[in-house]
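This section describes the prediction task in plain terms. A model, or a person checking by hand, is given the sequence of a single protein chain and must write out its three-dimensional structure as a string of tokens. No templates, partner chains or ligands are provided. The sample shown here is typical of the held-out split.
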Amino acid sequence: MANKKIEQPNFETTLNELETIVSQLEQGDLELDQALAQFEQGISLARHGQQKLQQAQQKVDILLANNDDQLQPYSQHQDD
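The expected answer:
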């Protein structure tokens, strides 16, 4: 049996889905079972988004730690 990798949504997709769920829950039109299922999905999406943010922060930290040279402010030179 082949292992299939489950594709995780990117951060922006996760955030959009979470916003949709929050909006639906705020409207209060869902039945209890539906609201609970949406809430559960929202918690899962929030955790996934938080994990993505932590991974991005770790990458930034690693990149900055591995940079021996000091970063210089960007200044744009215009040759007119």
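For orientation: The chain has a mean pLDDT of 84.
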